[in-house]
Amino acid sequence: MIRFENVGLRYGLGPEVLRDVSFHLEPGSFHFLTGASGAGKTSLLRLLYLAHRPSRGLITMFERNLAEVERRELPALRRRIGVVFQDFRLLDHLSAMDNVALPLRIAGAKKDEIRSHVAELLAWVGLEDKVNARPPTLSGGEKQGVAIARAVITRPKLLLADEPTGNVDPERALRLMRLFLELNKIGTTVVVATHDRRLIESAGKPVWRLQAGELKIERR
Amino acid sequence: MWGPLDLPLEKDAGGRLLSLVMAAMVFLAVLALAGAFILDHSLAGWRAGVAGRLTVEIAPGSAAAAKAGDATADADAAAAASVKAALKLLRAHRAVARATPLGRRDIETLLKPWLGAGPLPKDIPVPRLISVRLKPGASLDTAALRKALRAKVPDARLDDASLWLKPLVRFIHVAESLSAAVVLLIALATVMMVVFATRAGLAVHHEVIELLHLMGARDSYIARQFALHTFKLSAIGAVLGIGAAAAILWFLGRIAALVALPVPPAVHFSHVGWAALAAVPLFAVLLAVWTARLTVRRTLKHMM
Fold first, then answer.
1. In sequence order, which residues have a C-beta less than 8 Å from that of residue B288 and are 6 or more positions away?
2. Which residue, of A109, A146, A169, B288, has the fewest CB within 10 Å?
């Protein structure tokens, strides 16, 4: 589904933050991405969620060579990817419901469809009573729930999470992990970037380790 | 009317400013256009008033009477003789349909704005006037008629209104061109203002815009958000602007009616004029929305 071959990334004229990264992400797989701060985890995720193009190398996503994909074609590819950002990136002026509904509105879904899907997703993350709450009034864990619901509402093929347990207690972290595993079971490819060793060990899934911009794959 | 926008544009401080500036722009544009219409309407009225008409003025105490040898005749009798001679010449001319001498009461009515109501004192020398109506479509050599009139009645003066109308027409055309230039400048200033406001919005909200892009939003989706926001703000401004301009025009109309100004005439517009004035706020809003949309699309082209 996704293939990286000798991919390198540098920002502007700075040093390469990713060097010769190569991997193949099979559909329905689950991977952890780990490494020290500044190792390049977020940069690799940014390549995966199409926020950047690589400085060199070849990326193939959903059977498309990214070098040949024009700017106007990117939205269609991005709609197949869900992202849970480390800082959630929720819109404070919108309710939890409107935040979760955003990807569906962008995709042009009908109002009724949006309403039923959003209610269902908020119940799935345990926030059925927070439908009209705005992000500033939610706890860290609740914000994360909204962010996850927003990331998966379009049933993406690929789900990317950047340090999803960084701001929540261990119990909440395990609950989130169960949600990711549930999604993976129904066929979603999942990549979770994390420092959390306990989380990685509890899931028993393959781990990619980034060290100074180079990727090492640990088999389990 | 609409739900909240994905981009928190409503909270931008520049929003209220956009409404106020739009109100001022629409107000000025409507007044400039209305001024042009008032001048144009006045000109049409004056033209219709003087078309096919001439006036012959005979000075009081005419030399013609003296020449006629009536040395003891008073000024009135002399003037009456001149009027008679002038009427004879005019009525014989092939281009003249009618030549009518104005009675003393008509002349007193004409002089009323300057000398007040009531009969004029006998000792005030008042010229005699002959109103001449030309045949429809008749071509008249004014210079030849003036010459012939002078030969018969030396103190008669032929007053062709088109002579004093010409510089007025030139002045009105210049004023109308200036009005059009003012409206164009206002449109240009509106475009520039919306471009700056939109660029500021794009810069302030670039993180949210990137987020929307990452969720699969096309540039057109984001442009629509800006266009909708600009529409709301500029529509509020346009309504305020046209309201204020309408109030000013109504007030001017009342003032003009109260003081019974002969020039310029009362504020009056044709249906086309009213439609053009009503179109100003609509056009301003459309221009603002189109500018915002285009600015967003051109700016976003450089994003990933």
1. B22, B190, B194, B230, B231, B234
2. A169
C-alpha pair distances (Å), B61 with each of B58, B66, B67, B74, B103: 9, 8, 11, 8, 17
What H or E segment, with its residue span, contains residue B71?
none
Structural domain containing residue B25: 9-48+165-300
Residue of B211, B212, B214, B221 to mutate for A, most A C-beta atoms under 10 A: B214
Q: Residues B70-74: what's their mean pLDDT? A: 51
Same domain for B103 and B185, yes or no, is no
Max Cα-Cα span within chain A: 49
- Quick check: B8 and A107 CB within 8 A? no
pLDDT in tens, B243-298: 999 999 888 888 877 776 655 554 677 788 889 999 999 999 999 999 999 999 99
Q: A43, A91, A114: which to substitute to probe chain B, counting the most B Cβ within 10 Å?
A: A91
What total number of domains does chain B contain?
A: 2
Backbone angles phi, psi at A56, to 5 degrees: -155, 170
Q: What is the mean pLDDT of residues A77-89?
A: 94
User: B217 to chain A: which residues are within 8 Å by CB?
Assistant: 75, 106
- pLDDT of B127 reads 83
Instruction: Give me the pLDDT at residue B1, please.
Output: 46
Q: Are B89 and B214 members of one domain?
A: no
Distance CA B180, CA B163 (A): 27
Mean pLDDT on B11-28: 88
Q: What is the DSSP letter of A153?
A: T
